[in-house]
Amino acid sequence: xxxxxxxxxxxxxxxxxxxxxxxxxxxxxxxxxxxxxxxxxxxxxxxxxxxxxxxxxxxxxxxxxxxxxxxxxxxxxxxxxxxxxxxxxxxxxxxxxxxxxxxxxxxxxxxxxxxxxx
Length: 118
Description:
Blueprint: H1 15-23, E1 28-31, H2 35-41, E2 43-44, E3 48-49, H3 52-59, E4 76-80, H4 84-95, E5 100-105, H5 106-111, E6 116-117
Parallel strand pairs: 1-3, 1-4, 4-5
Antiparallel strand pairs: 2-6
Helix pairs in contact: 3-4
């Protein structure tokens, strides 16, 4: 009945698995929340802040606005507040050709021991 509320059922990577990969520079981490959300709670250490509305422009390797980190060919992990928006972002990034994982929400990152930047 409420399938639209479900997050990605098969993320392929947990926040706990992503933490050492981000620290080692082996994966690109993207926070897709809005700037006001990030200002209120901080973001995962090492994450790029790219709100959902800017994702197509900033993450598509064919776009002149694409960030250099997203032209590297490295896998990408995305998160939001709960995992729902990052599930949608995962699909968008996959269509752009990225290997992408939804690691859920910022709370998942924190619960796994991930550091927060303010």
